[in-house]
Write a structure and sequence with these properties.
The complex is a heterodimer of chains A (about 220) and B (about 300). Chain A has about 220 residues and is mainly alpha-helical. Helices cover about 65% and strands about 5% of the residues of chain A. Chain A has a single domain, classed as Up-down Bundle (Fumarate Reductase Cytochrome B subunit), CATH 1.20.950.20. Chain B is of the alpha/beta class. Chain B contains 11 helices and 5 strands, in the order ααααααααββαβαβαβ. Classes of the chains: A mainly alpha (about 220), B alpha/beta (about 300). At the A-B interface, helix 6 of A face helix 1 and helix 2 of B. The structure holds protoporphyrin IX containing FE (HEM) (2 copies).
Chain lengths: ~220, ~300
């Protein structure tokens, strides 16, 4: 009965690699901090910071579905979208929907704050974040406490994020996870109009190199 | 786009109603939080205590705990196991929290000091990885360890009076703080002030007076790590005679700083944890120890 589905690429490879690396690095940062493996923690935090810088750049120059200008809508539009979704009338979107756009911003913000406070944190014994020496010990201690607090916010946001994704899966029968893995959605899940415009991977590599250099420049003694 | 598009993409999967889904999520959330609370006994205790299902342990201000044990915890443990930081989810800034323990469960077994994780960790040999407080911080005195052991052996109570512990080591005499005359202080500080300010500009937060009432200096470069080496240390030559405490743990200073260290005629404490000491530096450290300077370093 089912016609074969026509697949359309919506997420470029850089966004997908970014997403799943983010998941792994958040887990790695968590486990390493819990077990006092602060060398590992430092490197996974720095990798995360670099990826976040990359993603912010990509949000301006990347594929259409990756761009902030395309998925950041006014809070009113986001609320309207949510109300319509509740009535079962939410519009289809190739990339992030107006509510999801805010979730993306929220996640990117708290993760960035986490990585930035980490740079100034210390473990009270012998480990100091790479920028901790540039501020007073008291301020470094306060930022360390904040670093611990923000992580609880991250956990909450990630939980909400997963709850939302699974809502689409089980309530609206829209699978968003598969597209985040293989990049494509069936065209019945897409709005009418031209498909997303993807930017070539080599440009993403250039942005990544730029992000690495930027982080290196901030941290150089 | 109408909702019809969504139906077309629906691969025959049975859908949940939004209300059902939210109920499942709420249930799962509560279960997850509950599971966390079970894994963290301290969290479960805190919840029960807040709900009034559990009373905090009895305490009296005249107890041995309040007079002898709590001050040790406050001075040596609170910075990592207190309100600001809870390493290993352990807090030692109240009796209730101390008895609850941390991430790996209780650390105090009343009546059984040998079986108490806390005692095991403070009784390790100096330099051990797991020693508490960690070896780069100021260590417990042997009497402190004895006081804690006796307290736990007698039941880790918050009410037993001082008189129940006749064998406990005597407390060290209280230090009385003398009032300082600002003019005298200013005169004492005068020769140091100029070079000190220059050093503070060059190395922020590394050197300062040890107290507001003191003309003596404290130097701590451990936060600068390997970017602080012999050349940087040499810059402190103009004030060496006023320095009483030095922490160079984890820095790159080495043999070339031996003379500068020996020039610190008023030095009382020196920390060099994680610094590789070659032969001349090691010999200098040995001679400093003989002069009564407290030296904390990886070398014996
Ligand atoms: C540590 C955990 C996670 C973090 C920090 C995280 C973060 C993010 C971020 C920042 C985005 C936006 C991607 C972009 O536009 O570049 C996103 C999207 C997405 N994530 Fe996650 N994520 C996490 C876990 C998960 C998990 C476990 C799943 C699967 C169940 C998932 C599924 C998705 C999907 C499907 C999208 C696309 C949403 C849409 O279609 O608008 N995420 N996530
Ligand atoms: C940019 C690099 C980072 C550095 C230098 C850094 C540094 C630190 C330090 C020094 C601590 C204190 C550890 C202790 O007290 O034993 C810490 C704790 C922690 N960090 Fe990071 N961090 C970084 C990035 C991150 C990131 C990206 C995450 C997660 C997304 C994270 C999650 C945590 C967690 C969960 C803790 C434990 C907090 C607690 O016990 O209250 N960190 N980090």
């Amino acid at each position: 009965m089912q016609t074969p589905l026509k697949l359309v690429r919506v997420w470029d490879l850089p966004v997908r690699v970014f997403h799943w690396s983010l998941v792994l690095l958040v887990l790695c940062s968590w486990v390493s901090a819990e077990n006092g493996l602060l060398r590992v923690h430092l490197w996974s935090g720095l990798a995360l910071l670099t990826l976040l810088v990359f993603r912010i750049i990509w949000g301006f120059v990347g594929s259409s579905t990756a761009r902030f200008s395309q998925f950041v809508r006014s809070p009113r539009q986001a609320l309207e979208y949510l109300r319509a979704t509740k009535r079962g009338e939410g519009q289809l979107h190739a990339g992030h929907n107006p509510a999801g756009g805010w979730m993306v911003l929220a996640l990117l913000t708290v993760l960035s704050l986490q990585a930035m406070t980490g740079l100034f944190s210390n473990d009270g014994i012998r480990f100091f974040g790479p920028l901790a020496a540039r501020i007073s010990a008291a301020l470094s201690d306060r930022l360390t406490t904040l670093h611990g607090t923000i992580f609880n916010v991250i956990l909450t946001f990630v939980w909400l994020h997963i709850v939302a994704v699974l809502y689409y899966r089980y309530v609206r029968a829209e699978n968003l996870v598969a597209p985040m893995i293989n990049g494509s959605k069936p065209d019945a899940m897409l709005p009418a109009g031209p498909p997303p415009k993807l930017v070539a991977v080599r440009w993403a590599l250039l942005c990544l190199v730029f992000a690495v250099l930027l982080v290196w420049w901030i941290l150089k003694p | 786009m109408s909702d019809a598009g969504v139906h077309a993409a629906d691969l025959g999967r049975r859908r949940l109603s939004a209300r059902r889904y939210i109920s499942w999520v709420a249930l799962l959330t509560v279960a997850t939080v509950a599971a966390f609370a079970m894994l963290r006994p301290s969290l479960a205790h805190a919840i029960r205590e807040t709900l009034g299902l559990e009373r905090p342990p009895l305490q009296s201000p005249q107890s041995f705990y309040a007079a002898r044990v709590a001050p040790i915890f406050d001075q040596h443990c609170r910075s990592c196991h207190g309100p600001g930081r809870q390493k290993a989810k352990l807090r030692l800034d109240s009796l209730g929290a101390a008895l609850r323990g941390g991430k790996h469960g209780a650390v105090i077994a009343p009546g059984n000091p040998g079986g108490s994780g806390l005692v095991q960790r403070i009784a390790l040999p100096a330099g051990s990885e797991r020693l508490m407080p960690p070896s780069s911080l100021s260590p417990l005195a042997p009497d402190d360890v004895t006081v804690i052991k006796l307290w736990i052996a007698a039941g880790a109570s918050g009410v037993q009076p001082l008189s129940a512990f006749s064998t406990a080591p005597k407390p060290v005499a209280q230090v009385t703080i003398l009032a300082v005359d600002p003019k005298v202080l200013a005169a004492e500080r005068a020769p140091v002030d100029g070079p000190l300010q220059a050093l503070q500009r060059r190395f922020p937060y590394v050197i300062d007076y040890e107290a507001r009432s003191s003309a003596r200096l404290e130097l701590n470069a451990s936060r600068l790590g390997r970017s602080f080496g012999d050349r940087e240390f040499a810059a402190f030559a103009p004030v060496v005679a006023s320095i009483v405490r030095v922490d160079l743990s984890g820095t790159a200073v080495g043999e070339a700083s031996t003379q500068a260290l020996l020039a610190m005629t008023n030095l009382r404490t020196l920390r060099l944890v994680g610094v590789h000491a070659g032969p001349s530096l090691a010999a200098a450290l040995a001679s400093m120890r003989e002069r009564g300077i407290r030296v904390y370093a990886d070398t014996p």
